Amino acid sequence: MAAIGSMVFCTDCGNLLPATKGTKKNLLQCECCGAWNKDTGSKTTLTKSKPSDFPSFLRQKLQSNVQAIERHNINTQTAAQERCPNCGREEVTYTAVQLRSADEGSTLIYNCKCGFSWNENN
């Protein structure tokens, strides 16, 4: 009888035997010829792989175009025609963020050049 990892084959006909239990005391009966065989399969199977073993167009595309982004240089604010309650300036900037659950509206955080900020829940 031959065993490859956890797969055990019949010594009489070479058919694949039922799943191994990993103990030599156990006997496995061949479903093809009916012969009884000792279970010589391993108790554990260890496999190792690395990302390059599974080539993928998407993975190659992601690895080839890596961009470094500095968080402090990203401008996420947009200008809006809104009156600042503190100084009366007509143009302020705002950022939309999702602070509540997904089925509720986003929160707009307004910022004025005078340093005043306020928010509105939409």
Summarize the structure.
DNA-dependent RNA polymerase catalyzes the transcription of DNA into RNA using the four ribonucleoside triphosphates as substrates. With about 120 residues, this protein is mostly beta strands. It has one helix at about 55-65, and strands at about 1-5, 5-10, 25-30, 35-40, 80, 90-95, 105-110, 115-120.
Task: Give a written overview of the molecule.
This protein is mostly beta strands and 122 residues long. It folds into 2 domains: 1-46, no CATH class; 76-121, N-terminal domain of TfIIb (Single Sheet), CATH 2.20.25. It has one helix at 57-64; strands spanning 2-4, 7-9, 27-29, 36-38, 78-81, 91-97, 107-111, 117-121. Strands 5-6-7-8 form a 4-stranded antiparallel sheet, with no helix packed on it. A two-stranded antiparallel sheet has the order 1-2. A two-stranded antiparallel sheet has the order 3-4. A hairpin with a 2-residue loop joins strand 1 (2-4) and strand 2 (7-9). The longest helix is centred in the middle third of the chain and has 8 residues, at 57-64. The radius of gyration is 33 Å and the shape is rod-shaped. The chain starts with a strand and ends with a strand. The model has no long low-confidence stretch (mean pLDDT 80).
